[in-house]
Write a structure and sequence with these properties.
Blueprint (H helix, E strand, L loop, with lengths): L2 H13 L2 H8 L3 H15 L4 E4 L2 E4 L1 H32 L4 E6 L6 H10 L4 E6 L2 H9 L5 E4 L8 E15 L20 E5 L4 H13 L4 E6 L5 H6 L5 E4 H5 L7 E3 L7 E9 L6 H14 L16
Parallel strand pairs: 3-4, 3-5, 7-8
Antiparallel strand pairs: 1-2, 5-11, 6-9, 6-10, 6-11
């Protein structure tokens, strides 16, 4: 049992698909299949149930995966700790991997952070809240930004901002400019939304269920950044955070305010409290907290540890 085999198993378990795992690992599919077969032979139990060409992690595999995740995470923490120690000797900046449901929220933060810390390499991932818990656990991400709860043991979060969620409508729409729109007024309205799992869709489903209405979903997908363009094209209305209107760069639509007090979103920064936090990751997290709180986030400012 070697590290490459364990890493291969971890990726196959995540995808439950040999070809997709092989693509991520950048190895041939037969090599992945042989590695899993050797690991199962060594352990003496099957880790996956085979159903035709599909594979599914079984109870043995799920139990083993939890141990593999912890073991590989510990090794990754050790690597990071030693890398940090080496960088302290040569003055290097290190790297931080950031996951977010939408990258638009981070553009201002990233511009300021790169200006203040040009030596830190920032790597971005667009992820669902469901994927973030795994990414933090397996050290695939250091810091996550989520607008819905990220569930999992040893996760800690701090609220960065709370903002109103507005109704974006095509120009000339009957609701354009309204300061108080009841959710019931959206019954049957053509609705544009990201797919299930995105925070806008989760919020919308909750608001509509509470009001007992059923909008007509005419478009859903995995490109939240395209929602306003689709609204502007007249396809329907959408729930959009106020930051999109306040930025002044998305004036292609008209806006209205929902009467519901639940039409709000909280943006949270989430970290794993039991993992080794590199100097770069800690620097970025502290900088992000100061940035969203409107405090000075420049080099040397706000040196105190934020409350997590």
């Amino acid at each position: 049992m070697d590290l490459l085999s364990l890493r291969c198993f971890q990726v196959v378990a995540r995808h439950e698909h040999i070809s997709r795992a092989a693509d991520e690992l950048r190895v041939a599919q037969p090599s992945v299949s042989r590695t899993i077969a050797r690991l199962e032979a060594e352990l003496g139990v099957p880790l996956f149930d085979r159903r035709g060409r599909r594979i599914h992690l079984n109870r043995h595999g799920a139990a083993f995966l939890s141990r593999v995740d912890r073991a590989l995470a510990e090794l990754e923490d050790g690597r990071r700790e030693l890398a940090d120690a080496a960088r302290r000797g040569d003055g290097g900046g290190g790297s931080v991997t950031v996951a977010s449901e939408t990258l638009l929220t981070l553009t201002g933060l990233l511009a300021r952070f790169r200006a203040a810390h040009p030596g830190v390499d920032v790597r971005l991932r667009q992820s669902s809240a469901q994927a973030m818990a795994r990414q933090l656990r397996t050290r695939e991400a250091d810091v996550c930004f989520a607008s819905q709860p990220v569930a999992g043991p040893s996760l800690r979060a701090v609220v960065l901002l709370t903002e109103e969620v507005l109704l974006a409508v095509p120009r000339g729409h009957r609701l354009a400019g309204r300061q108080r729109v009841e959710v019931t007024e959206l019954d049957g309205e053509p609705f544009v939304t990201p797919g299930r799992g995105h925070w806008q869709r989760t919020l919308a489903d909750g608001l509509f269920a509470q009001a007992g209405v059923q909008p007509t979903v005419v478009c859903e997908g995995d490109e939240p950044g395209a929602v306003l363009d689709l609204v502007a094209a007249g396809l329907g209305v959408a729930l959009v955070p106020a930051v999109a209107r306040d930025s002044g760069t998305r004036d292609i639509v008209a806006w209205a305010r929902l009467a519901s007090p639940d039409a709000r979103r909280e943006l949270r920064l989430v970290r794993h409290e039991d993992s080794y936090e590199s100097t770069a990751a800690r620097c970025f997290a502290e900088f992000a907290v100061r940035h969203f709180r409107g405090e000075g986030a420049g080099e040397g400012e706000g040196a105190g540890e934020p409350e997590f």
